[in-house]
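To: structure subgroup
Subject: Chain for Friday's discussion

All,

I'm putting the inputs and outputs inline so they're searchable in the archive.
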Amino acid sequence: MRDNCVPGSDGAGGRGGALRGRGPAARMGGLEETEEVSLTFDDNRLASLVFGQYDQNVAHIERRLGITATALGNHLVVKGSVEAAEKARKVFERLYARVRASGAPLTLGDVDGAIHETTQQGNLFPAAEVSAEPDRAVFDQIATRKRGAVRARNAAQDAYIKALRSHELVFAEGPAGTGKTWLAVGHAVSLLEQGHVERLILSRPAVEAGERLGFLPGDMRDKVDPYLRPIYDALYDFMESRHVDRSLQTGIIEIAPLAFMRGRTLTNAVVLLDEAQNTTSMQMKMFLTRLGENSRMIITGDPSQIDLPPGQKSGLVEAVRVLDGVEGIGRITFRDVDVVRHDLVRRIVTAYEAASHGEGEADRAPPARRRPLA
């Protein structure tokens, strides 16, 4: 990949980097200096993967960074403020390094991850180090045989992966779409494949959206499978289907409702409890005390989506409060800005958060005093 300088509006030029000149804003008395960066990628096919179908990745970066970018063949010209143009250059370089290593197309989530990682890189390392190693890894990653390396897409996911590696018990709270369950399953699969544990035990409380198991057709497995489907989906993302099926048959992977955990001691295993906001206090205490020798526990949930009967306390909310500060326990809290599923999902979660805060403020506001009748 070659980075060429492009003459600015004042006619100045140079070699070895992009030119910073007086753009239109400067000529009209504006305060913001503009920059134009020209990039030429060595491989046309890889460049097309970076740009995306119909240049959708380029358009996405334009929106996120507030720049304009023109792609033609393997050539790209970026224009914008000095800071935004430099950040865009680093993002495109990082994405090119990623597709050169994997050869796989990029998703918009990968693009967002590169943007977040580039921003974090600038905060963590001196500018000289960043310039020398523009594609150096900043966020942590997990790796499985099928999926390969999966890197965190934002600082919260990076902290989550680090917590999973350094703590025996990790609580992860936050809205849907932040990758809580998906990354937990990926980490569990990596530990299994590396031989650090012998079993994966994945569980969920069978209470959701006001439904009860008795209303569902079939035997017990037929009844609980719909509640555990998201965990199945994550497993098939990280493992070959034949390996998942064989592991389920042999008991290496066990997927069961929370009620089946009572009375057991879980050793040499990774134990994941998903949708933990729907556990009762007694269920959560029961689950936490199942932890055995050489085992890890991961507990995920969204306290804003509790489906327990009115007046019943969430075991997740209580456990996080009671166990705060206990050695060996990690806690990661995701926010609406950490949603990686889809931009629209992020906006939906943000809107609901804003609405709930507005209702809370209205509930706390004192009632208006009525004027006395004349």
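Points worth raising on Friday:
Residues 5-29, 122-136 have pLDDT under 50 and may be disordered.
The longest helix spans residues 343-364.

D.
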